[in-house]
Amino acid sequence: MRPFLTLALLSACSPAPRAGLTPPPVPAALVAPPDTTLALRLHAEGSQVYVCKAGAWSLKAPDARLYDESGRQVGTHFGGPTWQSTVDGSAVVGLKVADVAAPGSIPWLLLRSQANAGSGIFSRIAAVQRLDTVGGVAPTTGCDAAADGQEQLVPYSATYVFYSGAAADRSLTAGPGEQAFTARLSGDAEVPPVATGASGSLALVLDPTRGELRYQLRHDMAAATMAHLHTGTSGESGPVAIAFPVALDGLTGTLAITASQVSDLQAGRLYANVHSPAHASGEIRGQIAPGMMP
Q1: What are the distances in angstroms from CA 132 to CA 66, 78, 175, 190, 257?
Q2: For a surface tag, which of 117, 133, 159, 294 has the fewest beta carbons within 10 Å of its beta carbon?
Q3: Of the listed ranges 21-35, 114-128, 159-173, 204-218, the one predicted with least confidence
């Protein structure tokens, strides 16, 4: 069995967390929010992937496998940072809240959910702790001009503790003072058009008071790499305005939006674009317009 600090664990085959589990002791900065409940704990083994840029090693993404207490792989951990179940396909994307140094290893972390996907166990995760880290520290040598752009994989292991809870409001129904927007995504809308059988949709709700967009991204692409909102009108290619954390089908979450971006959104000057390895500039695209998805 792989190294694992024993704790009663939610079965990875069941989407419902058990009550009464005790959170592990952690530094005060890493305590999970009080409105969350311990759901499961998994052991990770893999690599921290670093890339050489301008003379220094920068973290590109984690690349790890997630194991339950029996040593069975039940998920993967990759860029975003994202944890995805290999049992039900659900996922959670984290955003760092706090860290605590772990000498000789990468830091311990507390992250909140910035997005979720699917309808399984990770779809209700609101917070994540990274604990018990071993290794993974960035290299200190070897990043010179000749190595620019090269990657180096540094082995690491960690324990990830997941907490379910009442997620932030991600309703796609516009409330008072809010406005709904939608887009239909296809290859025909790309500039130039892309021949693809893929399609998708994006539903948005603008909350101007908070400067936020609630969203749901749907698509049937097997290998989507990135998703963005771009500035531009129909038939025009424009720069990235807002990036989605990952490009998973069924992704829901919130995005920050500036006052100028709100103006572009309301004037029809924003479009959604989903990229793939075969179409790096975008495989499916759609202009965002007012209205709710039928």
Answers
A1: 14, 18, 43, 46, 36
A2: 294
A3: 159-173
